[in-house]
Amino acid sequence: MSTPSPFRSGGPEQVVYCHDEPTGLRAIIAIHSTALGPALGGTRFYPYADEDAALADVLNLARGMAYKNALAGLDLGGGKAVIIGDPATGKTEALLRAYGRFVQSLGGRYFTACDVGTYVADMDVIARECSFVTGRSPQDGGAGDSSILTAFGVYQAMRACALDRWGEAKLGGRRVGIAGVGKVGRHLIEHLTGDQAEIVVTDVNAAALDWVRANHPGVRIADSTDELLDSELDVYAPCALGGALNDETVARLSAAVVCGAANNQLAHPGIDKALADRGVLYAPDYLVNAGGVIQVGDEAAHLRGGGFSFDRAKAKAERIFDTTLEILRRSKADGVPPAATADRLAEERMRDVSRLRGILLPG
């Protein structure tokens, strides 16, 4: 695999390699943009096949965070970090604290948070060495689990898609397929159950499926993602890792709507058009899953006074419903896929707001 060039057009502002031999830490921090403010994005702890795979992932994720934060109306740029390794065997207090010192060395250019393989308790450990940590436990002054509002935002976007496609902002009687029932997928099941949707799920983690059986016996479990894709669905919700929408999966989809929590769902730039050509309504992933970053963004904005407010963050996350409707409206008016419309709006905000910094203020 060839290493992606950080100097390509639209590449990141900064890439930092973090290595601490005694703890075994190997991490990469990518800051895509600080046009709107400090870069905010989670830390993913994952057993990548090699360093090239880790770099490719962190660059894509950091770019997605820049667009996500811009579209969510936050005064924050976009960044991301990956720790290379198996969190089940390689995660230690010393490693997390070493990582925290690397984040601290950036002086506030990057704020971290939870992601795949990292949890609230991990953020508390990192915060012992670093001032720029969100997603900490409420007992430690933080916002807690951001997956709650991530799922809430996905549900709001799904309601908006239902309104656009079927004329009602509800999922009752619709069959929703969820690929991945981890932190976000579990909360999404709760929302959809309350809306009386018919739910089918799959996950590679047997423990996650055991949780579904124990807590939601009415939810049907598919043996694989292939089985889920081949099911008759109204909504497909990718809620695991990226790249879920590729040429093969798009060709097999029966769903009229794709709306899920996973980052970087499109395997390549032409997939959004392929979905549109098949009449599938795709809600851009970084719009849909912004609830969590809205939550930790509120925490970051109030680290030094005022404190985090869940109600305030939830009210902002609820606006994902309106933003989704606006993007779908503009998409139809402009004759382009929703992903292109979302990109355009995010880029416009990054450009227009960053331009204001050229206006000199006294002091």
From TrEMBL:
GO terms for biological process: amino acid metabolic process. Coiled coil: none annotated. Keywords: NAD, Nucleotide-binding, Oxidoreductase. Residues 144-358 form the Glutamate/phenylalanine/leucine/valine/L-tryptophan dehydrogenase C-terminal domain. NAD(+) binds at G180, V181, G182, K183, V184, G185. CDD domains: NAD_bind_Leu_Phe_Val_DH. InterPro entries: Aminoacid_DH-like_N_sf (IPR046346), Glu/Leu/Phe/Val/Trp_DH (IPR006095), Glu/Leu/Phe/Val/Trp_DH_C (IPR006096), Glu/Leu/Phe/Val/Trp_DH_dimer (IPR006097), Glu/Leu/Phe/Val_DH_AS (IPR033524), Glu/Phe/Leu/Val/Trp_DH_bac/arc (IPR016211), NAD(P)-bd_dom_sf (IPR036291). SMART domains: ELFV_dehydrog (SM00839). PROSITE patterns: GLFV_DEHYDROGENASE (PS00074). GO terms for molecular function: nucleotide binding; oxidoreductase activity, acting on the CH-NH2 group of donors, NAD or NADP as acceptor. The active site is at K80. Belongs to the Glu/Leu/Phe/Val dehydrogenases family. This is Glu/Leu/Phe/Val dehydrogenase.
